[in-house]
Every structure is written in C-alpha cells, then in structure tokens.
Write a structure and sequence with these properties.
Blueprint (H helix, E strand, L loop, with lengths): L5 E8 L2 H14 L6 H7 L7 E7 L22 E6 L5 E9 L8 E7 L1 H6 L7 E4 L1 H8 L4 E2 L7 H9 L9 E6 L5 E7 L3 H8 L8 E8 L3 H4 L33 H9 L19 H19 L7 E2 H15 L14 H10 L3 E7 L2 E7 L4 H4 L2 E3 L8 E3 L1
Helix pairs in contact: 4-8, 9-10
Length: 395
C-alpha cells in the first residue's frame, strides 16, 4: 500500500476541541489504547497532534479489469491522513475503503497504527502472526503472507476458535518475527474468520493466503518518521516437550529482540552488516541430514503430539522450516541432504520406524502416526548454540 513515494499536500494541528474526539475514536477501534497512560505514550498531554494529508505519487488502484479471485482484491487508496506527534512521528494512518454490502455508505473509514505506534503499544491488534526473517523481505516487495508460513500462538488460536465479535472486528493483523514481540508489519486478512477458524482447528489444512501487506517497516509510510528501530522485550522461547537448556545459561536458548530485528531487517536493507564470522557458511551433507532428523523430532513433539495427526506432509514441512529457523543458525535445505526430496526423507523415517505415511491422493502424502517411544522422540534435547556446526545435539 505504501510502496510508492508519498507527497505531503498539507500539514495542520489538531484543535483542542477535536483532540478528545480523536482519542475516543482510537479507543473505540483499539480497546488496548484506552487509558491515559497508554495514550500519553504516543500523544503526551500538552503536545500537539499533527495531521498530514498525503497522496501516493503514483496511482495504486487495482486494474479496471479486477483480479481473477475476489479474495485477491487489493484495497489500495491513494489519499491518506496521517496522525503524528509533535515531532512528526507518524503513529496512525486513516483512509477510506469501499464499504462492502452497505447501501447507506459507499465508503467506510479505516484507521491503522504504524509500526512506530506498535513498537510502543504492541498489543493494539488482537491477532498477531509470527514468521521468519526471509519472509519479511518478500512481504516488503509486496508478497502476500501465506498461512503455511506463520506460527500462530495459542492465545490467537483460542481467540479465533471462541469467536470474535464480527461487528466490531477489524480485519487486520500485525506480523512479528520469530523470537521477538516487535510488530514489523500490518496486513489485511485475506480469509474470513470462519475459514481461518476451520484451518486453525485440529486437522485443518494450514494453507492459503492469510494477509495482504498494508504497511511494513521500510516502506514510504515508515520513511515519513525518523526511521528509528525500537526493539522491545523478546518473547520466551517456544515450548518443547524435551528439556531445552544451554549449558546452564537459559539466555542462549532465545535470540534477543535486537538481534532478531536486525536479522529481519537485513533483507530490507535497513540494518547494518553485522559480523557473522562465528557461523559456518555451509555444513556437510551428513550434518544437514542430522539437522533434518532432529528438527523433525522437535516439530512432531511440539506441534503434533496432542492428537493432531494425521498431518499433511506439506504442513509438516512448513512447520519444520519455521522451527528449524528458530533453533539452528543454519537454514534447512532438503537439496543439501542425501534425501534430496522431502518425500524421500519421510520414507527413510518410515523405514527407521519413526513414523508411518499414508497416501491422501495422488502426489499427496500425510504422516498418519508417530512412534513416540522411538529414541528420536524420547532423547533429551540440549540447546548448544556454540557447538559446531549444528545448534542442536542429543545427549
């Protein structure tokens, strides 16, 4: 939405008589914004609230012919009102979108926080999805966020399953990088709540387009501000069934928010180079085989141990990619293993009596069951980030 340069048409200051109405509007849309302390973090008492009317330098509207799939329709206005603090740091952006199914109004107003606001109030959106840094770079280039490429917290899953008030629900969500609670992007939902609920239900297929990127660190809306990066506290490490330790130092079990943010922003050209001399560029084929086997065991135990089988091989593969990125400094690459293909890898694991494979249809496999007493599933896990060249070793 903000890939094109923005031109400021006018700049004004919100009148005192209008200030309370604006804050009340934000509180109505974002309940977590309610409260004097929260509001003063963004708009301190006694300081002006500025509004910028900006226009995209080039048209961003969808082609007249329209997309083939209605779900792919991009709501991309080209006129925006940006609400800033006294230092012209953009915190909210307002724009009009077509009002679907409403005969009274042709358009409805949407007001979204910027990443600057989310760095101060990270819980504005009830829905948040986490992904890996490699995906962030693709989102910055305009790619949609796929459901198979995210991890979903239990709180978000429960919120979707228990139902959301559809009348007041804002169909947008924030995106964070695994290992940090710092929202780095905002997107509009590309599937309705009913479909999302069915896909997050036990046995549901984690596939389909989840979010269309609206705003991301590094775009032109972000560039209106001071272009600062302000990390917050890291999320606790993901739960594993096995013991996760780091030679008595639990801090090594999770990546700091600052490191994670730099890792996420490097594909966008927003972070410094940073030294990675301590990590080998490549690992051997045998080590990649071992890493795949270990990440498979972790994924099965942490994601599919509670009656969530069978699981499609494609879904298992996606979850392994996400978990592998979190627990190892090396990216999983099946082409660098002796298996060459994920289907072959699963067949080898079946021959090793770790799991059984079932055929869903031609060309589609699923893991039907797992032998939880297999040594790969009962061995205690030790996290060792400094050991070479694999970040996970078995005791």
């Amino acid at each position: 939405m903000f890939k094109h340069p923005l031109r400021i048409k006018s700049q004004t200051v919100v009148k005192k008589s209008e200030r309370k109405a604006l804050l009340d509007q934000l509180s109505a849309v974002y309940p977590s914004f309610t409260g004097r302390d929260v509001q003063s973090d963004l708009f301190p008492d006694g300081e002006d609230i500025k509004t910028l009317k900006v226009v995209a330098a080039s048209p961003t509207a969808a082609p007249a012919s329209g997309p083939k799939n209605p779900k792919d329709a991009a709501i991309t206005p080209d006129t925006f009102v940006v609400y800033c603090n006294a230092k012209t740091q953009p915190f909210f952006v307002s724009f009009d979108v077509p009002s679907n199914g409403c005969a009274k109004k042709a358009f409805r107003n949407i007001i979204l926080p910027t990443v600057y606001a989310l760095w101060k109030c990270p819980k504005l959106f009830p829905l948040n999805f986490s992904t890996v840094p490699e995906v962030v770079g693709k989102m910055q280039n305009g790619a949609d966020l796929m459901l198979a490429g995210v991890t979903v917290s239990e709180s978000v899953t429960e919120l979707v399953r228990n139902g959301v008030e559809t009348e007041t629900f804002l169909p947008y969500a924030s995106v964070t990088v695994l290992g940090s609670n710092l929202p780095i992007a905002i997107g509009s939902l590309m599937m309705d709540l009913a479909e999302l609920r069915s896909r997050l239900a036990p046995g549901g297929e984690l596939k389909g387009k989840l979010l269309k990127t609206c705003h991301i660190a590094g775009d032109e809306l972000w560039a209106l501000g001071d272009k600062s990066l302000q990390p917050v506290e890291p999320l606790p490490p993901a739960p594993f069934s096995g013991e996760l330790s780091a030679g008595g130092n639990s801090e090594k079990a999770s990546t700091s928010a600052a490191d994670t943010l730099v890792d996420a922003l490097r594909p966008l050209g927003l972070a410094g180079g940073g030294s990675e001399a301590g990590l080998p560029v490549e690992i051997s084929e045998d080590d990649m085989d071992a890493l795949f086997q270990r990440v498979l065991a972790i994924t099965l135990k942490s994601k599919f141990s509670d009656g969530k089988l069978p699981v499609l091989a494609s879904t298992l593969n996606s979850q392994m990619m996400l978990i592998g990125r979190r627990v190892s400094p090396h990216s999983l690459d099946i082409k660098h293993t002796s298996y060459r293909k994920f289907a072959k890898f699963l067949e080898e694991m079946e021959s090793d009596c770790l799991l059984t494979i079932s055929k869903v249809k031609e060309g589609v496999q699923a893991v039907a069951s797992v032998v939880w007493k297999h040594p790969a599933c009962v061995t205690k896990l030790i996290y060792c980030k400094s050991c070479h060249p694999i970040a996970l070793q078995f005791s």
